[in-house]
Amino acid sequence: MGNQKENLTLKIKKDWCKGCGICVAFCPKQVLDLKDDKIEIVDIEKCIKCGLCELRCPDFAIFLGGNEDEEK
Amino acid sequence: MKKNNIKLMQGNEACVEGAIAAGMKFYAGYPITPSTEIAEVSAQKLPRVGGKFIQMEDEIAGMATAIGGSLAGLKSMTATSGPGFSLKQENIGYAALAEIPVVIVNVQRSGPSTGLPTAPSQGDMMQAKWGTHGDHPVIALCPSSVKETFDLTVRCFNLAEKYRMPVFLMLDEVVGHMREKIEIPDASEIEIYDRLKPTPGDENYLPYKVEEGQIVPAMAAYGDGYRFHVTGLIHDESGFPSNSTEVAQTLMTRIMKKVEDNINDIVTYEESNTDDAEIILLSYGGTARSAKSAMKKAREMGLKVGMFRPITVWPFPEERVKELAKQAKSIIVAEMNYGQMVLEVERIAKGTTDIYHVGKINGEVISPDEIFSKIKEVL
Amino acid sequence: MSSQLVQQYYRADKLPHIWCPGCGHGILMRSVSQAIHNLGLDKDKVCIVSGIGCSSRAPGYMDFNTLHTTHGRALAFATGVKMARPELEVIVVTGDGDATAIGGNHLIHAARRNINITTIVFNNNVYGMTGGQYSPTTPTGDLGTTAPYGNIDKSFDIATLAEAAGATYTARGTAYHAQQLIKLVENAIKNKGFSLIDAISICPTYYGRKNKKGSVVDMMNWLKDHAVDAKVAQKLPPEKLEGKFLIGEFKNVTEPEYTEEYQKIIERFQKER
Fold it and tell me: Most buried among B4, B49, B105, B202, using CB within 10 Å?
């Protein structure tokens, strides 16, 4: 999306995650894992904000988000 | 002095004149005898009035495209005959449930199947009411002259817009193909009804919410800035699908009542010589013309024969027929089929009066004499 | 909170959607909205039309003018919308069964007319909504609940079918190659004529399970390993393409567009008035 990478951080929306495992499998840096069939960030430091997880998440449950749109 | 616009015109052509007078700006259809002139005249006249015509690949597509045109804000029509009418049924049901104004003309020909394509019939009357699956409201009008074809096409558009639903013009090949004098009324004399629009800029517009004092929800057009959802699934006020039985009950009851609660506004009919009539001829469309002359002949012989002609065939003019049945010794229903609207008369008046049927399934029109001989038979 | 894309282009209160875990349709739907964003289209001027089936539930979630029609008839409804209001960007979302089985007749005629509609076929090789029957794109020999002894049908190549019928833009993408798919959707929308994208999706619940295609991730990897970009394929020897399928852009030409041609007829009379 529009904003630059610096102020973007990886965010997950657990209630929409259906545990399909696509993001975990295709994250190039093994940042993610499934816990009780839900997405979990296991190593945020390794995240390079490539956005492949958001690109292939069928449920909009993981994304690079800014902090300004916290409210919705 | 108003220049009167008198023409000799074919029924099918008058249908298009009426549609354009009513504000039709989109026609989508498929050629089929004996309705094709409606497509041809539409193709010729619409671009001249800034309207659009498209010939689709089949009648299913014709019906779908007409609905799409209406959703984008244009008054739309399609015309067909028996075989195409059968093909259109699923999408007619869609327009009924999604409440999309659209006019469907059926120039009835002798069926079933390919039947006698150039021969008249009134054999699709029950299909108009029961053709598509599931319960849904139905309005069908039936002209018996070229002038009335013009007037009723206008009325079909007005009813479709007012009640947000598909409305049928049930022509038959007799009226569709005959040519008659017609005086085209001046535009200023024609009452036009346009669909209820949402208040501009209404942020929380709900495409299926009926506000206080409204019969139907306001209908925005795609592209007007409301970005709403339309589906053929049972849906809530936001238009989004719902599996809730309450939502289904509320929606279905509301759309059925659109017609049920407005019978007086929708139902029209014509009567002649019924005050003292002992025998009442009940006929509609092209056949009503023969019934009329049979009545005249009988009257000239001093027989107390009257005539009742439903102009709105669905919903059927139940109240008035019930009253007439009390007064009449018998009702003779004359229609070019094996017995369809007679079933309605029987449902309403069986036991109150004797009911007879003059039918035709061989592609011929019913002659005045055939009706007259029935009159003598039941005297 | 949800992503900006969801906030801007979705009816978030209607999410999460109904598709099964790992169904590729969510990825395809996201790609379509991402392409619309990249093109900066006005949401009020976008109309998304669908037929019936899993694919066709997409428009309900998307914040545009949306129309969920009858099985196979999306393109016919969409033709009416486009003819009536040509300034609308009309996109059809449809399934392999919806578009090429019951909707086949409308597909070839919409393509023949070269009407400016972008059609994206969510092609998962199965009738998912009705529980796993085989479809016109199910590979020969594969299983479906109605092909218990192996599908004896040949399957359609939808892109070639549309091209033969007259489409001026054809392409194929996949749920795995989502980045490329977004680009294909952008180009398809930009094409002023009939555009068709055969977007290969995955159906782990029915097609995957019935044909033992492994996990969701296995099915995504299958797409990764069996798709070859059309440009690359030209340089590869035939045996390298054995068992593979082509993705990317196949056709992108400009020909007279249907609604523009009709507008010329109308303008002929406007000058006279």
Answer: B105
Task: Give residue C153's domain range.
Answer: 2-272
pLDDT at position B203 is 83
| Interface residue of A8, A15, A39, A59 to substitute, partner C, most C CBs within 10 Å | A59
pTM: predicted TM-score of the whole model, two decimal places? 0.97
Does the residue B239 lie in any domain? no
Tell me, yes or no, whether chains A and C touch by having 3 or more C-beta pairs under 8 A: yes
- State pLDDT tens for residues C49-96: 999 999 999 999 999 999 999 999 999 999 999 999 999 999 999 999
Out of B153, B168, B189, a domain closes at: B189
pLDDT of residue A67: 65
Of C16, C30, C176, the CB nearest to A16: C16
Domain count, chain C: 1
**pLDDT greater than 90 at residue A2:** no
Return residues 239-298 of B near C (CB < 8 Å): 240-241
A28 touches C: beta carbon within 8 Å: no
Residue B373 structural domain: 270-378
Residue of B nearest to C86 (CA): B72
**pLDDT at residue number C264:** 97
> Which value does ipTM take for this structure?
0.96
The list of chain C residues with pLDDT below 50 reads: none
What residue ranges of chain B have pLDDT lower than 70?
1-3
Q: How far is B42 from B77, CA to CA, in rounded Å?
A: 10
DSSP string, B208-250: TPPPTT-SS-----TTSS---EEESS-B-TTS-B---HHHHHH
Using a CB-CB cut-off of 8 Å, the residues of chain B touching C78 are 68
Query: Which of B164, B189, B214 is where one domain is finished?
Result: B189
**C window 5-44, beta carbon within 8 A of B:** 11, 14, 43-44
Number of independent structural domains in chain B:
2
Contact C76 B60 (CB under 8 A): yes
Q: Are residues B8 and B151 in the same domain?
A: yes
Q: Give the alpha-carbon dihedral of C68, B159, C86, C105, to 10 degrees.
A: 50
Whether the CB-CB separation of C76 and B68 falls below 8 Å is answered with yes
Tokens of C19: 């598709």
Is B109 part of any domain?
yes
Task: Give CA–CA dist B320/B343, Å, rounded.
Answer: 16
Indicate whether B203 belongs to any domain: no
> Alpha-carbon distance B89 to B13, whole Å?
24
Chain C residue whose CA is closest to A63: C3
Do residues B143 and B46 both lie within one domain?
yes
CATH code, C211: 3.40.50.970
User: Chain C contact for A68, CB < 8 A?
Assistant: no
Question: d(Cα C167, Cα C161) in Å, to the nearest integer?
Answer: 9
